[in-house]
UniProtKB/TrEMBL annotation:
Keyword vocabulary terms for this entry: Hydrolase
SUPFAM superfamilies: Nudix
Domain of life of the organism encoding this protein: Bacteria
Keyword Hydrolase listed: yes
Source organism per UniProt: Streptacidiphilus pinicola
Pfam families, A to Z: NUDIX (PF00293)
Gene3D superfamilies given in the database record: Nucleoside Triphosphate Pyrophosphohydrolase
Gene Ontology molecular-function annotations: hydrolase activity
Keyword Phosphoprotein: no
Protein name according to UniProt: NUDIX hydrolase
PANTHER family per UniProt: ADP-RIBOSE PYROPHOSPHATASE YJHB-RELATED, GDP-MANNOSE MANNOSYL HYDROLASE
Record-annotated Nudix hydrolase domain positions: 19-148
């Protein structure tokens, strides 16, 4: 999988140690309310399109870039749907990372959804009631919050303050990758 140059340079200093990184996830819907998924080449699982923010890159630009790089589609980010921390990941080469994920609800504009780089084995549109079984609960949570009919951003809370009156939604604490 392509590693951004800034991250490659950083890894020369920290090796495989855990890194805290900023990332974007695109929950991309077409006109038939289907969601676009890729089957990842690193683990073989179906997942939403996602990627690392480049230094200085605007998050909205990053999700547009990732959609085109990974799947050959142009998208319009409609809103920031959620801010959450993804479960820690260990890549096949031993690199460890945890991502602060900015989850965007995106509208498909054009382009033929296809494998467009070496990060994916397959790219496909899925009906919401027909998501592949290997889509993680954390990925499903991202789809769920992107579907909310609201203009507000959802923030994951692991331990709400009792005085705030804010309670996490039942699916807010997914069980790992």
């Amino acid at each position: 999988m392509p590693v951004p140059e800034f991250l490659r340079e950083l890894r020369t200093h920290v090796g495989h140690d855990p890194l805290w990184l900023s990332g974007v996830t695109g929950v991309i819907f077409d006109d038939h309310d289907r969601v676009l998924l890729t089957r990842r080449s690193d683990n073989g699982r179906w997942a939403l399109l996602a990627g690392i923010l480049e230094p200085g890159e605007q998050p909205g630009d990053a999700v547009v870039r990732e959609a085109f790089e990974e799947a050959g589609v142009r998208v319009l980010p409609e809103r920031l749907a959620a801010v959450m921390v993804d479960p820690p990941v260990v890549y096949p080469n031993g690199d460890q990372a945890t991502y602060l994920s900015l989850v965007f609800r995106c509208r498909y504009l054009d382009g033929e959804a296809r494998v467009n780089d070496d990060e994916s084995l397959e790219v496909r549109w899925f009906a919401l009631d027909d998501l592949p079984a290997d889509v993680t609960s954390h990925q499903r949570e991202k789809v769920r919050v992107a579907l909310r009919d609201t203009e507000t951003t959802w923030f994951a809370l692991s331990k709400p303050e009792p005085e705030s009156g804010i309670e996490p939604e039942p699916e807010a604490a997914p069980a790992g990758p």
